[in-house]
């Protein structure tokens, strides 16, 4: 593997200055060059957060997957590290696909999918690499550690990927995505005492027709006294990432779920992966894109022409609400990069557009409460990144109880309107928004109703306005900030 790693790192160093910076964000983790998709190996090791990612350095489109690598002390400022994994062996010659990381005996282990795809066969197996310093990794000689013999008669080796590893009471477990013989998504559970010798435990969950043909990038963890299963279902329409909460029995490997929900209603939130922070918070990070929508962009969007493609959403904390649903809250560390605070106690909104101030109008954070007791409007429209007759619209349809994020006029590239049910029976509606150069992340309903959408707006699109139709609206406790750049 050393030669393939050396070649990749040399290419990055020799070509990074060729990457155009126009659409690169200020505070979202992105690759130095080339293509990025799924987050991998989100872990805390020796006092720092490590985050790996699916990476193809040689072009700004998907290719033979490598593992990019970055580390951070604060979840904000990320240090680029050398490529961690690259295709090099017979079992991963066409790609080191997604996986996860775990610390054992002060060593960092990566469990990943080895991908082989040629005229004779398509095969995906689970493989292990280990590091003593958290930077340089060695693939173990007994790879693959989970292979055809483990799933014979259970799943198809051609679609068997994305292991998420975890430890419980001294034993190791991993969930792996697969599909049934009639193309329904399913999640398999395996167990090990040492990370190298694995045995099949159970079919953790099997989907029904219409729920996706492949449940990619599963994650499974305990939150309070319940267990949470998350995955991204391919071929299930508007669902980019979903969660199920319920009960789990380690003896039987049986998961009984009771509540389901969407992790994000936007177009650009896929393959979320979680970890436990040193303070006990369950944190998640996701790829700010999604396979079924990506081809709708012309040439994969304008960043393709800049020599890079892909970034991650703002990292979020997973919290369980009293009713068993989940909330996904931007990490509190984001407050550290706030600047130029602006506040306004009350804003009266009518049909005449009211201009709002938030940083430079490009990279900013905005929070306010819509007072539903004092509001009699049918809808409220918040327009973001406006200029040159372009805009992104966040529409609070109070009459029909719907939230719409419309990016069809955002930039000449993006398409579509994401929709979700909006709670209007409460006394107020909370709104929290993060905007970056090519991203809008909108949170409401106590962070249970979120929309993450990419846009590719120019720097001349820096105006913000809000209007109310069919009556007036009242905003309480408006506050906004500029956000400092996290990358030099």
Overall description:
This protein is 4% helix and 52% strand. It has helices at 2-15, 148-151, and strands spanning 34-45, 48-56, 66-72, 78-85, 96-104, 107-117, 122-131, 138-139, 160-168, 171-179, 185-192, 198-206, 214-223, 226-234, 242-249, 254-262, 270-276, 282-287, 308-309, 316-320, 326-330, 338-349, 354-355, 364-371, 379-387, 390-397, 402-406, 417-421, 428-436, 439-444, 449-454, 463-469, 473-483. The chain has two helices and 33 strands. Strands 22-33-24-29-30-31 form a six-stranded antiparallel β-sheet, with no helix packed on it. It has a six-stranded antiparallel β-sheet with strand order 23-32-25-26-27-28, with no helix packed on it.
Total strands:
33
Outline, from the CA principal axes? globular
The spatial strand order of the largest sheet comes to: 22-33-24-29-30-31
Radius of gyration computed on alpha carbons = 22 Å
Count of runs of 4 or more consecutive helical residues: 2
Distance between the termini: 30 Å
Structural class: mainly beta
Q: Helical percent range?
A: under 10%
- Unreliable spans are none
Largest sheet: 6 strands, antiparallel
Strand residue percentage: over 45%
Mean pLDDT: 95
Descriptive terms for the model:
six-stranded antiparallel beta sheet; single chain; 488 residues; 52% strand; mainly beta; globular; 33 strands
């Amino acid at each position: 593997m050393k030669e393939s790693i050396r070649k990749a790192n040399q290419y990055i160093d020799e070509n990074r200055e060729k990457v155009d910076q126009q659409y690169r964000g200020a505070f979202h983790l992105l690759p130095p060059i080339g293509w990025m998709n799924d987050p991998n190996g989100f872990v805390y090791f020796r006092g720092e957060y490590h985050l790996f990612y699916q990476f193809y350095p040689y072009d700004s489109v998907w290719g033979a997957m490598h593992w990019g690598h970055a580390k951070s002390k604060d979840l904000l400022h990320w240090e680029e590290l050398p490529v961690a994994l690259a295709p090099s062996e017979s079992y991963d010659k066409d790609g080191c696909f997604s996986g996860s990381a775990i610390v054992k005996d002060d060593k960092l282990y990566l469990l990943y999918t080895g991908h082989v795809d040629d005229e004779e066969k398509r095969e995906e197996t689970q493989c292990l690499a280990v590091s003593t310093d958290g930077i340089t990794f060695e693939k173990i000689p007994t790879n693959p550690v989970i292979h055809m013999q483990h799933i014979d008669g259970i799943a198809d080796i051609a679609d068997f990927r994305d292991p998420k590893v975890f430890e419980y009471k001294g034993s190791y477990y991993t969930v792996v995505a697969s599909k049934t013989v009639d193309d329904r998504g399913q999640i398999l559970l395996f167990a090990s005492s040492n990370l190298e010798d694995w045995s099949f435990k159970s079919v953790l969950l099997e989907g029904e027709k219409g729920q996706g043909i492949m449940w990619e990038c599963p994650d499974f963890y305990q939150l309070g006294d319940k267990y949470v299963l998350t995955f991204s279902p391919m071929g299930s329409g508007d669902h980019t990432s979903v969660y199920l909460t319920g009960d789990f029995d380690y003896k039987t490997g049986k998961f009984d779920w009771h509540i389901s929900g969407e992790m994000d209603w936007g177009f650009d939130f896929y393959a979320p992966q979680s970890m436990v922070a040193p303070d006990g918070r369950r944190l998640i990070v996701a790829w700010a894109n999604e396979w079924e929508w990506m081809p709708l962009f012309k040439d994969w969007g304008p960043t393709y022409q800049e020599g890079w493609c892909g970034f991650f959403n703002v990292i979020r904390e997973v919290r369980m609400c009293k009713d068993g649903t989940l909330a996904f809250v931007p990490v509190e560390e984001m407050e550290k990069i706030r600047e130029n605070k602006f506040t306004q106690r009350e804003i009266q909104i009518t049909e005449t557009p009211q201009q709002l101030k938030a940083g430079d109008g490009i990279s900013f954070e905005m929070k306010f409460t819509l007072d539903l007791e004092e509001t009699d409007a049918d809808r409220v429209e918040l327009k973001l990144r406006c200029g040159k007759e372009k805009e992104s619209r966040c529409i609070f349809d109070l009459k029909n109880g719907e939230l719409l994020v419309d990016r069809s006029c955002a930039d000449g590239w993006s398409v579509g309107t994401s929709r979700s049910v909006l709670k209007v029976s409460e006394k107020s509606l909370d709104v929290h928004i993060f905007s970056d150069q090519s991203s809008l992340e909108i949170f409401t309903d106590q962070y249970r109703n979120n929309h993450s959408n990419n846009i590719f707006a120019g720097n001349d699109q820096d105006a913000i306005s809000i209007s109310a139709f069919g009556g007036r609206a009242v905003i309480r406790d408006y506050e906004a900030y500029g956000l400092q750049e996290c990358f030099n």
